[in-house]
Amino acid sequence: MARNRTIGKRMLVRLALVALFVTVAAPSPCWPAEIEINWDKVKQKGNAGANLGIFQPVGDGPFKTAITAETLTEIDYRTRHPALPPNPTPAQIAEAKKKRWDYTSLAANMFRANAKFGSVGNGLGAVHRNQTGKVITDVHIKLLNGNTFKNTSSGGNAFPTVTIGGGGATIDFEGGNIAAGEFLWSKMPEFPQGDAEGKLTDAPPPVKKKKEGKAAPKTGSTSSSGSYDADTGALDLAPSQIDFTIYRSGSSSHPDETLVGADVVIDTMIKIGPSGSVSGAYEFSDANIVISVTSDAFVQGSLTDVLLIPDSSVGGFDSVLQATLAWDYSVGGIRSPVLDDIYGPTQPGEDRLLLFRSNLLTETSGLTMDSPSSSGTLDLAVAQPDASGVPALSAWASIVMALLILVLGTRVVHRRRGRLSFNE
């Protein structure tokens, strides 16, 4: 029974991709050595009455070019399959195919692993409604029979970036913003079922501000600083030392603790621009972080989703630099009693964070001026959802996530859904 369910799920994924790429044809005898695939964004003329099911261009692009070639300004669902006379001739079939198109819906399972497909090669392609419930950003396609994509392939008004790779066998249409309920159009030549595979990519969830909890352990530096260069947008956090560790019990010291005094070094982060998800915040580039107890005992991690957020919830500071922290690998061995916290209860959606609080926004007049040195505090913590479902900082010392690895010996740490997994 379990095997049958597995086969059924796989079949659903394949059928979904069949719908996406209009794959109902028998193998074509004219599979071209190079193929051109075009995408575009289209709009429905109206949501009711006679306008329902009529699609128009959103601007100049492959869709407008294709329908203009057939002396059309729009296409109508009711005439998507032109009628043929009884016993049509090959010429009549070919002529009808020029104005034939199909309509499909895009389902959420198209974001999973690649599925194989083919194309019937309709003259006016196909319209696809985004029924995934997500924002579609990219389409990825790979040819499986040794042929290649033409560099004239276009993403139209849907995907501004088109990249051909893999010796011409792969093509990525990227940079889209196709919201749920909106419409895509695609056109490709006829080719056999199974000669290509593809999948969709959706937009990552927006980065959100985390709320800091009142009670929980944490570790970091009370004497940190950062500098900002307005010309380059470079934000540098100066090397600092961990000078406190607050345990779950509330104690601030332990005779076996080796973490205090460890050096913290963070790469330069570059301003990207205003955040699209947090009002008044700025996005910065990812960076590496290294925490060294000795030259032979250290951990390295990655800082992602970096935001500088206006925040005066902690007295004396006007902002917090927030970054998601993931440990990549470690070397050496460190003993620390805070390892016990690793084995404590976890909650869904937890995030390991780095927080740097300062007055950087005031001192730089909103990142428009240089700041040679902005004093602040550096915390390493874990954000967990509170009872209301809003993430709150449980603020354990997230550095201990790496310490477990070090006690067990040299390990390589892999990120998997925000949690740690260990491989020899």
Account of the protein in words:
It is a single chain. Strands 15-16-20-21-23-24-25-26 form an 8-stranded antiparallel β-barrel. The chain has a 6-stranded mixed sheet with strand order 4-3-2-12-7-5. A 5-stranded antiparallel sheet has the order 6-13-8-11-10. The longest helix has 19 residues. It folds into 2 domains: 201 residues, no CATH class; 213 residues, no CATH class. The protein is built from 5 helices and 29 strands. With 424 residues, the protein is mainly beta. 12% of the residues lie in helices and 41% in strands. It starts with a helix and ends with a strand. The protein is elongated.
What is the compact description of this entry?
The protein has 424 residues and is mainly β. Helix content is 12%, strand content 41%. The chain has an eight-stranded antiparallel β-barrel.
Features:
mainly beta; 2 domains; 6-stranded mixed β-sheet; 29 strands; disordered C terminus
Largest sheet: 8 strands, antiparallel, barrel
Helix content: 10-25%
Which class of secondary structure composition applies to the elements?
mainly beta
Mean pLDDT: 78
